[in-house]
Amino acid sequence: MDEFHQIKYITEQLIEKGNFSIVDSAFSADYVAHAGDKTHKGHKFIKQFTKQLRTAIPDIKIEKIELISQADNVLSWQRTLSGIHKANLKGIPATHKKVKWYEIVVSRFDKDKIVEEWVASDLALQLMLKQQ
Description:
Layout: H1 3-16, H2 22-26, E1 27-35, E2 38-41, H3 42-56, E3 61-71, E4 74-84, E5 98-110, E6 113-121, H4 123-130
Parallel strand pairs: 1-6
Antiparallel strand pairs: 1-2, 3-4, 4-5, 5-6
């Protein structure tokens, strides 16, 4: 399976289906995620964040995944996600409204595992806008 199809499969399994067992086989033990000025590391972070996301938006759906560019072992891609915000997420109270958001991700692979990612998401903004 090529890297883009791996990304699609991993995202579906982890985010939509909540299959946490995929983390060990899909991500390096030395995984690093960069989001804004924060850096997160390891399998524990992936599982913890995904659990928080799936708790807050239990019916989360991946609407679209698009490849932006690919060079050597690095892919730039965008995903569109949606669902009903049913529980607090990172201090943002549940709105019980449908939210749709976009994320740009740059994923770096080492062999067949993701070792590093840079993520830009407008989820927090979209949740805040739904508070009104």
